[in-house]
Specification:
ten-stranded mixed sheet; 12 helices; 34% helix; 16% strand; elongated; binds S-adenosyl-L-homocysteine; binds iron/sulfur cluster
Length: 372
């Protein structure tokens, strides 16, 4: 039996076979050459996402020859948890080994205010979308080791499944703020989101899924045209090109004007507010002038602002501003009536979680894994 390449054309690096958890229900239904009744697709998704088995063999209500055929056509990957850092009720980091030995991390953040959903009683997973990152923001640990490859849809979905299995907890909020730039892997990320969101998949509401981008303007427009009501967060981190150019190389390609007009397009298409993430870095982007200009941008787009005190990265020269200076920055936004929050937790908990997954522990973990 042939593989149906016309059905699935997303990027699969080095993969001989497409993984079954990278397929959507309609694609499973189109496996017409298997000559199966259409309810077979729902049986398969039920085994994958409700009962969560690890092999085709376990799908016992499918005919034996169909199970064998599926095994021939599709891969059935599983990502292994190599290490867990942290304990219940705190932020936990999970280190995964992928089938090609790449290592990625996800973070589970327990219920906490001031994250990206509206309510505070959420368990949030911060997922990775790439191995490494090619965008090289000057302050970020993920970019330090360069880019190796995009994650496939199943590798994104499996981060959530593996963590739910390990912890026994149901996840209700997903943020795409781990390693990598989600919009540089747009096809695989949107496919993963459809699986995460679908009632036949993980069933997590689109409004509880937030994608964060460093500012890939054309892809923001593309995402705006997708029929998905997910939330979008923009890593702005500077209110002028001068500041942004210094710390985010992407700004030389898509400057603030181009970025904001793409954001404008997104908010108009989706009729929803977006969030500006703004890391406060001492002496770089924390002046009163930047605060006023940031307020202007936020007002123009009716955006919310999340201020995040910078978490120091070993080997990089940046640091967070003093507590007073952080509060001053926040008070300027508030005085301008911009909805804004400041994460006040210490560096090693929530702040440290998202967006700097390789931080502190990454090299040490590589070492430990190599030695074990
Ligand atoms: N590539 C995407 C998503 C991953 S980064 C993006 O850049 O938006 C997720 C967030 O973590 C971004 O806002 C990023 O700027 C932030 N981040 C990266 N390094 C950080 C650090 N050392 N301290 C605080 N936030 C950081
Ligand atoms: Fe990549 Fe985002 Fe880090 Fe920039 S901040 S290097 S885009 S992961």
């Amino acid at each position: 039996m042939k593989r149906p390449p016309a059905l699935v054309s997303f990027e699969v690096a080095n993969a001989a076979k497409i993984d079954i958890k990278s397929l959507e229900l309609n694609e499973l239904q189109k496996l017409a050459d298997l000559r199966q009744p259409s309810y077979r697709a729902r049986q398969i998704t039920d085994w994958l996402y409700t009962r969560r088995v690890d092999s085709f063999e376990e799908m016992t209500d499918l005919p034996r020859d169909l199970r064998a055929e599926l095994g021939k056509q599709f891969a059935f990957g599983k990502i292994d948890i190599v290490r867990v850092l942290g304990s219940r009720d705190t932020t936990r980091k999970f280190l995964f080994r992928l089938s090609d030995e790449s290592l990625i991390e996800s973070v589970l953040i327990p219920a906490s205010p001031a994250l990206y959903g509206e309510k505070s009683d959420r368990r949030t997973i911060c997922v990775s979308t790439q191995v490494g990152c090619a965008y090289g923001c000057k302050f970020c640990a993920s970019g330090l080791e360069g880019f190796s490859r995009n994650l496939r849809p199943n590798e994104i979905v499996d981060q959530i499944i593996a963590i739910e299995r390990e912890t026994g907890e149901k996840i209700d909020n997903i943020v795409f703020m781990g390693m990598g730039e989600p919009l540089a892997n747009l096809d695989n990320v949107t496919r993963a989101i459809r699986i995460i969101n679908a009632p036949w998949g993980l069933g997590i509401g689109a409004r509880r899924i937030t994608v964060s981008t460093s500012g890939l303007a054309p892809q923001i427009r593309k995402l705006a045209d997708e029929p998905l009501q997910i939330r979008l967060a923009i890593s702005l981190h500077g209110a002028t090109d001068e500041v942004r150019d210094q710390i985010m190389p992407i700004n030389r390609k898509y400057n603030i004007d181009m970025l904001l007009s793409a954001c404008d397009y997104y908010t108009k298409r989706k009729k929803q507010r977006l969030t500006f993430e703004y890391i406060l870095i001492a002496g770089v982007n924390d002046t009163e002038e930047q605060a006023h200009l940031l307020a202007r941008h936020a007002r123009r787009l009716s955006a919310k602002v999340n201020l995040i005190p910078y978490n120091a990265v070993e080997g990089l020269p940046w640091s967070r501003p003093s507590h007073n200076r952080q509060e001053k920055f926040l008070s300027i936004l508030r005085a301008e009536e911009i909805p804004a929050t400041l994460r006040r937790e210490k560096g090693h908990d929530i702040d440290a979680a998202c967006g700097q997954l390789r931080l502190q522990t990454r090299r040490e973990e590589f070492e430990l894994v190599r030695r074990s």
